[in-house]
Amino acid sequence: MTPKEFEITLADAEVQLSRIKHLYEQWFQGIERIEPQIARKQMERTIHLLRKEQPRNTALRFRFQTLIQRYTTLQTYWRRIGRQIEEGTYRRDLLRARRRRDAARAEREANRNRRSSSPLELDPSQDMDVDQLIEQASDRMDELLKAPSRGSNAKSLDLDESNAARVSRPTSSPDAGAPSATFAKPQSNRPQPTRPRPNPAVTPARKPAPPIPSRAKGPGDARMRQIYESYVEAKRRNNERTDKVDYETVAKSLKKMVPKLDRKHKGKRIDFTVVVKDGKVGIKPVVKK
């Protein structure tokens, strides 16, 4: 490719870049519906062709490097805005949604105010029988006046209840003064057993709970020494510090665990073993029959 042809192709690439920039701005504003991918592919083909045929002219090479830098910067900007559009965080979309929400809210408020404060509007082109409307209204008023009130209903209900109670009350008969025969419950001659009543003042003393015998189900001193030595040896193999580990502290901790384990596992012997868990050396209780 001659320097003249390279210059013409470079000028076309600059025009293409400006056109792609305007297309992307239209896409960001919502004028274009899709991203201009086809124009970008043509631009990349042109840049690839110019990159293979770079002339020795310093001015042309400087223009080409400037074009590459502009295209790289715009690519970063386009990628960032496109990601915001996909995630729904682009400022243009947020403002558009806010304006749409405010417009809908204002329209609802206007409709509510119009329904509450606007007078009744009659259509002049619609035929309306005024006499019929007046007759219907008067019939409705007559029905409301003829309907019994709530207080009268309550009074009539009380009168009906009193009348019903008076009717259901039995009348006095001439034989009302005659004595009636009564039958008493037969009594038995068998003596009733007497139950001793507890005296609330005297309460029987509760028996004290028997003392729990101390049971030594844990390891002895010889076994405790073996556990301590195995524990120290395992720490050394695991590259852990052993200068602060003494026999009295380990033995005291293990003997403190024996009564709890003995109450939980009755009739079983308690022993301990050295284990490595999560990269740390520890002592684990073992229950044996």
Quick recap of the structure?
Among the domains are: 3-92; 221-288, no CATH class.
What are the defining features of this structure?
single chain, 289 residues, mainly alpha, two-stranded antiparallel sheet, 2 strands, 59% helix, flat
Indicate the overall shape.
flat
Helix content: 55-70%
Note the gap between the termini.
Answer: 94 Å
Q: Which structural category fits the helices and strands?
A: mainly alpha
- DSSP summary, beta strand count: 2
C-alpha-based Rg, rounded: 52 Å
Percent of sequence in beta strands? 5-15%
- Give average pLDDT, whole number: 77
Any overview of this molecule?
This protein has 289 residues and is mainly alpha-helical. Among the domains are: 90 residues; 68 residues, no CATH class. The protein is 59% helix and 6% strand. It is built from eight helices and two strands. A two-stranded antiparallel ribbon has the order 1-2. A hairpin with a 2-residue loop joins strand 1 and strand 2. It is flat, with a radius of gyration of 52 Å.
